[in-house]
Amino acid sequence: MNKTAAADVVDTPATEPDTPVDQPARSSNVDAIVSYFESGITPADAPGELGIELEHTLVHDDLGPVSYSEPYGVEWLLDQLEADFPSTTRDPEGDLLGVARPGEAVTIEPAAQVELSAGPYRNLDEALEAFEAFERKLSSVLEPHGERALTVGYHPSAKALDLELIPKRRYKFMNLYLGEKGPFGPRMMRGSASTQVSIDYWSTADCLRKLRLAFALVPLFSLMCDNAPVFEGAPRTHELVRTEIWRYCDPDRCGLVPGVMDPAFDLRRYAEYILDTPAILIPCRKEQWCYSERTFGEIYAERTMTRAEVEHAVSMFFNDVRLKTYIEIRPADAMPVPYVVAYAGLVKGLFYDAANLDALDELFAGVDGTAVEAAKDALMEQGYEAEVYGRPVAELVDEIVRLARRGLAEDERRYLEPLARLAEQRVTLADLAEREG
Fold first, then answer.
1. What segment(s) does the record annotate as region Disordered (predicted)?
2. 138 found inside a domain
3. What is the CA radius of gyration of the chain?
4. Is residue 302 exposed (0-12), middle (13-18) or buried (19+ Cβ within 10 Å)?
5. What 3-state class would DSSP assign to 200?
6. 255 Cβ contact partners less than 8 Å away, ≥ 6 residues apart
7. CA dist., res. 52 & res. 119, Å (int)
8. Is residue 15 part of a domain?
9. Could you tell me the residue range of the domain that residue 384 belongs to?
10. What is the DSSP letter of 13?
11. How far is it, in rounded angstroms, from Cα 360 to Cα 364?
């Protein structure tokens, strides 16, 4: 597994050229992106590892938002964490934006959501220990000041536009661009919080297979990990709030990678998709980040992208499943740590067992992009009562839990139980929160 968290890329491209009629460097840029993906291939005899990211929403005891800049705000929190996480990241003005130590990075999202990116982990024991230790640390720092770190999918009290953006130039431009697309971009940036799990691949074919299967599983994972009972300060009006946010955030760079469910899809088509999408921002010498609505292909039309530029370009895509030098599975809401580890165990049991990959191929045979989007619609409307891919979703969830148990070592199967119990009861964390009022 490659590193799960990296600092912003600040490689310096040449001054943006005038938009060319054609792209002389097109082929070499496709090659550069494909080479970047292929550099993530892990030796076939290596154990599969997991990277895990969990975002936290900081609130006062009355559930009001905690901002970056206020007294005992998120900047202050990062300063308190620095003794344990001594490697720091600051912007050019000196604002503290992240702290880290080997294997763990604490960063902040656009409205000061606090993210722990950790791993890679070969076993779930280590993951549980690390994330529980971080939760204890947050509680010890925040509670004396009347604050809490919640692991929920959407802010429990505030509307997104009322939340302060952190002082990060990258997010200023993203907010501008996505805000012009509609209301869901700012809601994604400011209001939402997620759990993400990253997995390895052993060949190009293995990579493409896991991508296709992960996209087919996205609606099921979204249901099982639904933990957003409140949206924009009011009770949600449908299931799977996160699914709606990401569907309408920016169709150019979210949801399905175009063509990914086609068995003939390859990494060159993925690279072309990246080149043909507006950049939003690129690294630049003068201001660190410069805004651009031109595509990456246009910006780098006359020269080959550096690896740093490729890394940045890939980071500007927010698909349900994202390929870097590992596969990042992204549809889950933020959840309490036992559920996060259960979700990581679910992913591990499904994707790191050869027989289970075969079983998933059979289970999702014939599922295309249209079917994935239809599954999202059905689940937002009906939850566990829906039919997905021609079967009751409850049956599909039972089957993937069964496969995951089979794919895990006996001593790790217990970690699945928090999610497995919810599935057996046909409820989600969001459902339970609604019942509790």
1. 1-27
2. yes
3. 21
4. middle
5. coil
6. 246, 247, 319, 320, 373
7. 6
8. no
9. 26-429
10. P
11. 6
Q: Which residue has the higher pLDDT, 212 or 9?
A: 212
Rounded CA separation 364/382 (Å): 21
Task: Tell me: pLDDT of 15 over 70.
Answer: no
Distance between CA atoms of 371 and 377, rounded to whole angstroms? 10
Count structural domains, the chain. Answer: 1
Domain with residue 265: its CATH number is: 3.30.590.20
Determine the Cα–Cα distance for residues 391 and 169; give it in Å rounded to an integer. Answer: 46
pLDDT at residue 320 greater than cutoff 70: yes
What pLDDT, on the 0 to 100 scale, is given for residue 151? 98
Tokens for 65, please give them.
Answer: 């938002």
Q: What is the pTM of this model?
A: 0.93
The strand ranges marked E within 324-426 are: 327-333, 387-388, 391-392
Query: How far is residue 423's CA from residue 343's CA, in Å, rounded to a whole number?
Result: 12
Angle (CA) 34-202-339 rounded to 5° is: 105
d(CA 380, CA 201) in angstroms, rounded, equals 31
Is the pLDDT assigned to residue 6 strictly greater than 90?
no
* pLDDT tens sequence across 102-144: 999 999 999 999 999 999 999 999 999 999 999 999 999 999 9
Share of the chain above pLDDT 90, in %: 86
| pLDDT of 8 strictly over 50 | no
Q: List beta partners, residue 88.
A: 99
The DSSP result for 253-301, as a single string, is TEESPTTTTSTT--HHHHHHHHHTSEEEEEEETTTEEEEEEEEHHHHTT
Single out the residue of 154, 235, 226, 208 nearest to residue 393, CA to CA.
Answer: 226
Q: Is residue 61 part of a domain?
A: yes
Q: Note whether residue 11 is domain-resident.
A: no
| Residue showing tokens 């200023």 | 172
Kindly report the average pLDDT of the chain as a whole number: 93
Q: How far apart are CA 381 and CA 219, in angstroms?
A: 12
Q: Are 198 and 118 in contact (CB under 8 A)?
A: no
Q: Which helix (H) or strand (E) holds 121?
A: strand 114-121
Q: Which residues pair with 104 in a beta bridge?
A: 101, 118
Residues 33-73: tens digit of each pLDDT: 999 999 999 998 888 999 999 999 999 999 999 999 999 99
Look at residue 262 and tell me whether its pLDDT is greater than 60.
yes
Write down the residue that tokens 């690129």 correspond to: 282
Nearest to 209 by CA among 349, 365, 345, 317: 365
